[in-house]
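Action item from last week, closing it out:
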Amino acid sequence: MSDSLPDDALERGLANRRKILGDAWVDRSVGNANTLNVEFQRMITCYAWDSIWSRPGLDPRTRRILVLAITASMGRWEEFELHIRSGLQAPADAPDAAALDLDTIREVLLQTAVYAGVPAGNTGMAIVLKVLAALDRSPPKADFWSGEPAA
């Protein structure tokens, strides 16, 4: 291992990545390491997933919400979708997993549309609906005028 990336930071970073993104995603990332990307993978694991995600100032759910707003604002849709999918699949009773619910996602996208533009909110909503459909969790139809579930 590189001297600039201590083993304990790599282990803590991997543990955070697993909590937030899930074992399957992390196993795929680690399993796809090659001589070109291995140092990059180790760097983001130590820096982003340990140095940042381990900081005490924000809880993991708030950090995930910030990731959603920032990635949507910047049009980083692959990362946005990753955090939507893993947030929806995270166990609600495990705070470190940073679970998401539809009310929170709706609010993030409304806020994003105001500050980053309607196209960002619109694309974000389309991605969320695609992920929900893939997870067989599509929301019920609603009446346009009342906003209530359709009869």
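Closing note: The helical segments are 7-21, 23-31, 38-52, 60-74, 77-89, 102-116, 118-134.
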